[in-house]
Queue: 2 jobs
Job 1
Amino acid sequence: MTSSASATLFLLCGTWFGGAWGYTIPQGPADAVRRGAAINTTRAGFLYGPAVAGGPLYPSGILGQAKIAADIENEQLETTPNTVLVAEDKARASSSAEQYQGLDTFEEYLLLYQGQWAKTLPKGPAPGVLTNYTQDLFFSMERLANSAFSVRRLPRSSELPFQVEYPIVSMVTGSSLSLQKLLQDGRLFYADHRAQAAWPKTTNKFAAACDAYFYISKRGQFLPLAIRTNVGSNLIYTPVDEHADWTLAKIMFNVNDFFFAQTWHLAATHEIVQIAWMAAIRTLSIEHPIYALLDRLTYQLFAIQPLAQSFLFDNGTAFDTLFPITGTGARNFVTELYFNGTGAFKEGYFETDLKKRGLIHGDGPKLAHFPYYENASTIHNAMRSFMRAFIKSFYKSDRAVQGDPEIQAWAAEANGPAKAIGFPSKFDSIDGLVDALTHIAHLVSTVHHSVNTNNLLSISATLPMHPASLYKPVPTAKGITSVAQYLPPLFDPFKTILVAFADIISSARPLIANSTRSLSYMFDSPTFLNGSNRETRTAATNFKEAMFAFSRRIQGRTFDKDGLSQGAPFIWRALDPTEAPFSLTI
Ligand SMILES: *[C@@H]1O[C@H](CO)[C@@H](O)[C@H](O)[C@H]1NC(C)=O
Ligand SMILES: *[C@@H]1O[C@H](CO)[C@@H](O)[C@H](O)[C@H]1NC(C)=O
Ligand SMILES: *[C@@H]1O[C@H](CO)[C@@H](O)[C@H](O)[C@H]1NC(C)=O
Ligand SMILES: *[C@@H]1O[C@H](CO)[C@@H](O)[C@H](O)[C@H]1NC(C)=O
Ligand SMILES: *[C@@H]1O[C@H](CO)[C@@H](O)[C@H](O)[C@H]1NC(C)=O
Ligand SMILES: *[C@@H]1O[C@H](CO)[C@@H](O)[C@H](O)[C@H]1NC(C)=O
Ligand SMILES: CC(=O)N[C@H]1CO[C@H](CO)[C@@H](O)[C@@H]1O
Ligand SMILES: [Fe+2]
């Protein structure tokens, strides 16, 4: 077989013939030259082409096209049975119109869940969603669990983004504290969606562009303080407003946060991993252990951008029909996020990001509960342990890392022609390499599935609190009487509710639960392990066992005597490693 044919074969079927001799790092200059011939063949056929669906460069060339086609075919093969479940749930929901009683009150939106979505979400919405959804603590703890990427602690030296009068702050907090004092105490947090104001809008759907304060209360709870709309009369709402007004304010914030989380996740997970993997394909031999690892972690990766374009961004698809910002606007928003900093590799490292946002080791009191951090860190630590064992089984020292021309070429390629942002400029040490690989594993799993996949249908997109848009303009005065009027109607010319559900349930992946596609099996793949060594196989088994144990803990979670779980009035299970996939999904 010529090297060109074998490279093509590899890229087409994604398997490797290497079990007999195993993965190796380059064994000296002569070996590097031998491997270089096949790498050069790949480089000639796997090229950088223009972005698809926004963000960084996307594969082109004969091998690039072949890889995209293979990923799409694989993705479609796997999701076909999922699509059948979605269709069954949709059909049932469509024929249950009477059940919803017209959806003309706020509470009637809960009827959308009675006996519905059983195929796509067998366990139903997260416990607490259908009972505790109006609580302020529910709203605020979502910022620390299922939507943890928009909030930050305001540094004590900040200027206050907006003022809330002292008597109101005092009423909300039940203390004599002013906003300035909360800031000085390091207890004031902020989320800012004002960037959404400027983008092209869809017709008949509306949104504010909220920014909001949260604070740590005297009792140590993380709670909302105020929400400002930044459109029209630029009203500032707080929990001491009338119930309907304050509820709508939380919904308006949720609309912005939903749009943010979904656009952000494309830039922050899919696109960062995509460009890193493209650079790796063009620099690492297929004999390299890191190539094999990345091949595993990037399962179906290149399928997502074309799917995102055709299902989310194309005219008349998801963004145009559901969201306040058009598909074209949303795609450009993703690209702007990516190049504004979200696309930066090292800056997004798990703890680096949380420290930068003052959510851990912050300048102020510690958050009493932080479900995303607590539970992602269990998985993150286990991934790091695997990576350490894996890397140490191939590199005996930092010098061996420094002396591997292929991984150094990967770093140079990423920072050169791939134009990746914030990727390590070189690999100096075992630790540095472990950090980078752990980060890729983190992005494709703990980050992605905490905001997407099953998380949407089970909590982040649940009604009545989380519509994708408002269906009436943002109010210009307080004193509204019906929140339901702002929510998606049951019957409109576009069957809004059911279109919304069809889209959201399509991101749920019930068939992955308890299968070898689950996160527990991230490294336990016969194909990947075939070419590896004993240390790697042991580490893969240890990871899987740790994930099974963690899953049992998550499944055993209940509400405590205060009706809370990890400080929240809902039980967040999105990161159960027996249910979440080991790779990125649409
Ligand atoms: C493992 O490698 C052997 C030898 O190269 C090959 O015959 C076999 O098909 C591989 N198995 C898997 C699961 O990839
Ligand atoms: C691969 O290509 C590079 C750059 O064109 C060249 O310097 C190198 O000699 C080539 N390696 C082999 C083994 O052909
Ligand atoms: C990107 O940054 C600029 C400058 O800070 C800001 O005006 C813009 O809203 C940002 N874009 C997004 C999508 O956040
Ligand atoms: C999609 O809509 C945009 C904005 O309305 C328009 O400029 C563009 O031509 C449309 N594209 C197609 C393929 O119809
Ligand atoms: C997976 O298996 C466990 C233990 O057998 C079971 O409790 C759980 O409900 C299963 N999950 C799904 C979604 O089938
Ligand atoms: C949240 O809902 C559950 C039932 O779903 C209930 O047991 C619990 O007490 C509620 N928590 C609070 C704080 O109301
Ligand atoms: C209930 C549960 O599993 N929560 C865990 C989240 O992660 C932290 C940190 O590992 C554990 O202490 C919690 O028990
Ligand atoms: Fe996704």
Job 2
Amino acid sequence: MVGGGQAVDKDRVPPGQAVTQKFPVLSYGQTPTIDLAAWTFEVIGLVNNPVRLTWTDFLARANDVVTADFHCVTGWSRLDNRWEGIVVRDILDEARIPPTATHVMAHCYGGYTTNLPLQALLSPDVLLAHRHDGAPLEPDHGGPVRLVVPDRYAYKSAKWIKALELLPENKRGFWELHGYNSNADPWRSERYDF
Ligand SMILES: Nc1nc2c(c(=O)[nH]1)N[C@H]1C(S)=C(S)[C@@H](COP(=O)(O)O)O[C@H]1N2
Ligand SMILES: [Mo]
């Protein structure tokens, strides 16, 4: 289904996905209440230089813009989202990651987790985003800050991000422990592992 009669090139949308103009909210559990004065984002685990940003630090550095499509594993895709924030690769560079680190666990306020191969986070369109389509990111969509990983199904785009933990091996996050795919490439329909 293509909303508003807008024609979309089928090569633009991964297999089994339908375009929506809406922006559905998909959360497991409640939207957490987050105090900006106490908010931090950290890079932890297997790193030579742990990184910790306060909200003030984050705002001072949030100068990157990415326009990207967003694909939920349940079958909807929202095209041309304009995200503003900080490119994750730049922050990971600062953390000086040793070659023994191969995977990452994203940890969220509220307790959600999701795992990714480190390589997937090094793509220049992976963002820590605090704005969406010209407005502050709404709490239900992950505000103050969410991870955005355009090349993976959206369960990898962790809302209310709190930390990235570098790991020496793959560990499964919340939906991945329930059978969703660890890598989650929508172009390969990597929806389920079991
Ligand atoms: N912290 C957290 N992040 C999350 C989720 C969640 O339940 N908690 N749901 C994921 C799923 S399954 C999807 S499809 C997207 C939905 O993002 P949206 O609610 O902004 O559309 O967020 C992902 N990130
Ligand atoms: Mo999802």
